[in-house]
Amino acid sequence: MDMTWVEIDLSAILHNIKEIRRRLNKGVKICAVIKDNAYGHGIVELAKAFEKAGVEFLGVGDVSEAALLRKNRVKLPILNILSALPSQVKEVVSLNISQNVSDLSIVRLLDAAVKKQKKMPGYI
Fold first, then answer.
1. Where are the domains of the chain?
2. What is the chain written as a DSSP string?
3. pTM of the predicted protein model
4. Is 29-117 a domain of CATH 3.20.20.10?
5. pLDDT above 60 (res 17)
C-alpha cells in the first residue's frame, strides 16, 4: 500500500510571500486563494500564515469557509469567489465578506441585507 503525504512548511510560505512582494510593483495587493480547505492543506493554518505574511486578503470558495475563518479570528478581508446562494446572503453580510456576484438578484439581496443589518458593505 502506497502512503502519500504532504508537508506544509509555513516558514517557506512566509519566505515565498516576501519574495513575491519584492517583485511586485508598489501598491499591488496579494490575494491568497485558499478555497476547498486550502486545497486540502488546512484553511485555518494557512490563513493565519498568510495573515502573518502580510497578504491583503483571502479568497475562499464558500461562505462556510469564510465563517470558519472568522470563527478562528482571521481578521483579513475575505472574498468569496464563488456565487453565494440567496439563503447565504444574510451570513455574507454579517461576516463582512466581499462577495463575487454573477446575478443582479444577488446584488439586490446583498443590498437589502446590508441595509437591514445597518452595515457597510465589505469591499476589497
1. 29-117
2. ---------HHHHHHHHHHHHHHSPTT---EEE-HHHHHHT-HHHHHHHHHHHT-SEEEESSHHHHHHHHHTT--S-EEE-SPPPGGGHHHHHHTT-EE----HHHHHHHHHHHHHHT------
3. 0.86
4. yes
5. yes
